[in-house]
Design a protein that fits this description.
By secondary structure, this protein is mainly beta. 0% of the residues lie in helices and 50% in strands.
Length: 117
């Protein structure tokens, strides 16, 4: 069982930056694939970024070059650095931990990111 709590969301102007955090408890995340997803109103939840247990990363095309995912296994933390934010990045951002790609894994409650002037 992994309990995940996201934080760091808020209101930011276009072009600004935010750093999201996901704090895990109940189990070490060292053995988990860690993902950031986002869901905007009326849209399906979509994968934003993934980091494997070995530290390999991949990103949705829409955020490549702007977002950076990282993990701190020692402190059971997952991060998403978001730069050059655009209004279309507005969504609830959720972290997910799963032992393998085929499993549903564990979800946090999400943190709202709003990009607006």
């Amino acid at each position: 069982q992994v309990h995940l709590v996201e934080s760091g969301g808020g209101l930011v102007q276009p072009g600004g930056s935010l750093r999201l955090s996901c704090a895990a408890s109940g189990s070490t995340i060292r053995d988990y694939i860690m993902d950031w997803y986002r869901q905007a109103p009326g849209n399906q939840r979509g994968l934003v970024a993934r980091i494997t247990t070995g530290g390999m990363t991949n990103y949705a095309d829409s955020v490549k070059g702007r977002f950076t995912i990282s993990r701190d296994n020692a402190n059971n933390m997952l991060y998403l650095q978001m730069d050059s934010l655009k209004p279309e990045d507005t969504a609830v951002y959720l972290c997910n931990a799963r032992r393998s790609i085929g499993l549903a894994g564990y979800w946090g409650q999400g943190t709202q990111v709003t990009v607006s002037s």
